[in-house]
């Protein structure tokens, strides 16, 4: 009984900070017999507010970008190295992850607000790739963000957090500055403080 009680805070922490990529309790849409048709979902009238429950991690500061290839918005192969030259914020997300979806509008607002100083990539970890992401994306109205796809989770494995959302900031030379494991309101004061270190 004591061991069960000791695990409860950990389970609560995981539920509050993000979505566990390894969990079997919440299978991805489309992993069973039927795929969910996101094109028939109405866009949310009142989006859920993004929370600042993510953990900031600076233990990988100075680490080079992983060389993993993933898919660009037009299906072209890309890697993070293609974006060197300006600071880059990389967000790993999935359509089935509530905290990921909640923070997406704040990432879009950040990308628009800092468009001259910062690049923002949102990279889906959905295993079904474009089959699931494109209908979901078509039902949203993001001004700046484009759907990148990492169906094999190569970036996810490279980052090794086992969690979405995971967001990693790189400087203009492609070196990691910090990462946030879990959700963040990218319009909030906490995010602004983190951004000031990189883009002033």
Keyphrases for this structure?
10 strands; six-stranded mixed sheet; alpha+beta; single chain; Glutaredoxin; 200 residues; two-stranded antiparallel ribbon; disordered N terminus; 5 helices
Tally of individual domains: 1
The name of the CATH architecture is 3-Layer(aba) Sandwich
How far do the termini sit from each other?
50 Å
Point out poorly predicted stretches.
Answer: 1-17, 22-47
- Mean residue pLDDT: 83
- What multimeric state do the chains show? single chain
Count every beta strand, where a strand is a DSSP E run of 2 or more residues: 10
Query: How many helical elements?
Result: 5
Task: Please compute the radius of gyration using only Cα atoms.
Answer: 17 Å
CATH level 4 superfamily: Glutaredoxin
From the spread of the alpha carbons, the general shape counts as globular
Largest sheet: 6 strands, mixed
Q: Hey, roughly how much beta strand do the residues contain?
A: 15-25%
What would the CATH topology be? Glutaredoxin
Could you say which structural class the secondary elements and strand pairing correspond to?
alpha+beta
CATH class: Alpha Beta
Helix content: 25-40%
Order of helices and strands: HEEEEEHEHEHEEEH
Strand order of the largest sheet: 2-10-9-5-6-7
């Amino acid at each position: 009984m004591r061991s069960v009680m000791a695990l409860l805070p950990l389970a609560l922490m995981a539920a509050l900070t993000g979505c566990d990529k390894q969990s079997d309790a919440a299978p991805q849409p489309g992993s069973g017999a039927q795929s969910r048709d996101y094109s028939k979902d109405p866009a949310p009238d009142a989006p859920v507010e993004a929370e600042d429950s993510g953990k900031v991690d600076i233990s990988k500061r100075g680490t080079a970008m992983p060389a993993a290839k993933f898919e660009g918005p037009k299906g072209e192969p890309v890697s993070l190295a293609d974006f060197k030259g300006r600071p880059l914020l990389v967000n790993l997300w999935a359509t089935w992850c509530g905290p990921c979806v909640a923070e997406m509008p704040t990432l879009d607002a950040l990308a628009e607000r800092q468009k001259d100083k910062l690049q923002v990539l949102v990279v889906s970890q959905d295993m079904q790739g474009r089959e699931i992401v494109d209908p979901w994306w078509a039902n949203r109205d993001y001004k700046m963000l484009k759907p990148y796809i990492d169906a094999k989770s190569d970036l996810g494995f490279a980052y090794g957090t086992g969690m979405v959302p995971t967001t990693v900031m790189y400087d203009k030379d492609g070196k990691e500055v910090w990462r946030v494991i879990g959700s963040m309101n990218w319009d909030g004061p906490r995010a602004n403080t983190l951004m000031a270190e990189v883009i002033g």
